[in-house]
Design goal:
binds Muraymycin D2, mainly alpha, globular, 357 residues
């Protein structure tokens, strides 16, 4: 909105020119989101406590988790609020891509909120029934995929590390988009099982897509790097910047020992946002690297369930994989920080594909 109202004032004073720059607005979107999280965080966490929105911890998990019972959850609502306010302030809200990304983020957040509400307030451990939850996620992702497809999103998909390798998905780009968005949303949800374990790699992944959005949306840089130029995608850097700021602000409270958990309202929405960023910036396959931690967590569940069904044997002591290391005796902060380190390495590797092709 600041862009909308203040940039036109550049006619009167050159200072207002800064509001046209995506780089400037991205930085201030991140700072605004971070500061808002610091200011609103303690108040909202207290509110969650008063409302008795406390975590119900499962008793069949690692025993160290039992002491976490009652930790306020649904803190993801703070992230959603802060990202939305910051994007409204600093983003160009006439940009279609910003709308699609906001739609997926808020839509997935709503599904997560209903799930959390049933678990935490209605005290029904199962939450939203899996089939309904999954169908709703697919519905949101499909709506986004259709909006993008009919707004002429490029259906060519680039293969990382290969300069000329591109596959044209044509109309199959629609189910592919759904797969990326729903997959990312659920993978982040599965990762969110230790203090700061999901939000750390989320900061790193959002920062990476912030950079990619800026690069693909800049006609000269995209041509220099020989990457796909995506008109109107640069604006997503502002959104990703707000995600980085809000996630850093959340980590302040979610770091071990956590004062708050994000709940499904946080994990499903952030994951959905990440998947949508990957799609619109046309770096879909690269998400496997950028969100490598989320991919490995999801794969560990697939292998565990698959192996158990086929052979009756487990691959890990417990899936998702962070539980495996807990059972092996690694202290929680060690697992978390090591996963963050791996996420940083993977993000650097992903960025290097801009040159190594
Ligand atoms: C989310 N939720 C956490 C918190 C967070 C198919 C199966 C693999 C599904 C999986 C599952 O249910 N995943 C969904 C996992 C839970 O956290 C809440 O959920 C929100 C995210 N959705 O924000 O509100 C617990 O995680 C801990 N936590 C922290 N710090 C945080 O910052 O310590 C969360 C955030 C919290 C807290 O203890 O209560 C969760 O783990 O439940 N299921 C599992 O993960 C279960 N795995 C399993 O059954 N494995 C089997 C098969 C099915 C693969 C196997 O290995 O054989 C494990 N989870 C638990 N106990 N809690 C095992 C049993």
């Amino acid at each position: 909105m600041l862009y909308y109202f203040l940039y036109p004032l550049a006619k009167h004073h050159t200072f207002f020119n800064v509001f046209q720059y995506i780089s400037f607005r991205t930085i201030y979107a991140a700072i605004t989101a971070l500061l808002l999280s610091f200011v609103l965080g303690p108040y909202l966490i207290n509110k969650l406590k008063v409302l008795k929105f406390g975590e119900v911890v499962r008793t069949d998990g690692p025993a160290t988790h039992l002491s976490k019972a009652g930790t306020p959850t649904m803190g993801g609502a703070i992230i959603l609020l802060v990202v939305t306010v910051s994007v409204l302030l600093w983003g160009n809200i006439t940009n279609i891509n910003v709308w699609v990304l906001t739609f997926v983020t808020v839509g997935m957040g709503l599904i997560g909120f209903i799930d959390d509400y049933i678990k935490v307030v209605k005290k029904d451990k199962k939450g939203l029934r899996a089939r309904i939850k999954f169908s709703a996620q697919v519905g949101i992702a499909l709506a986004a995929a259709l909006m993008l497809y009919f707004n002429n999103i490029e259906t060519l998909v680039a293969i990382p590390f290969f300069k000329e390798a591109q596959i044209d998905f044509k109309v199959f780009y629609i189910p592919f988009t759904v797969l990326v968005i729903v997959g990312a949303s659920n993978a982040v949800n599965l990762t969110d099982g230790l203090d700061g374990l999901a939000i750390g790699p989320m900061i790193i992944a959002a920062a990476t897509y912030m950079l990619l959005a800026y690069l693909v949306g800049h006609v000269k840089i995209a041509s220099y790097l020989h990457i796909m130029y995506v008109p109107k995608a640069g604006e997503l850097a502002v959104f990703a910047g707000a995600m980085v700021g809000a996630s850093l602000g959340f980590l302040w409270f979610n770091t071990y020992p956590a004062q708050v958990f994000m709940g499904d309202v946080g994990s499903l929405s952030l994951g959905g946002a990440l998947g949508t960023l990957a799609v619109i910036t046309k770096h879909e396959i690269l998400l496997i690297l950028v969100g490598g931690i989320f991919v490995v967590e999801a794969l560990s569940v697939i292998f565990q369930v698959g192996s158990y069904k086929l052979t009756g044997k487990r691959v890990f002591a417990m899936a998702p994989i962070h539980h495996h290391y807990e059972i092996k005796g690694w202290p929680e902060p060690k697992i978390i920080v090591r996963f963050w380190i791996i996420a940083i390495i993977l993000a650097l590797l992903a960025i290097s594909t801009l040159k190594i092709r």
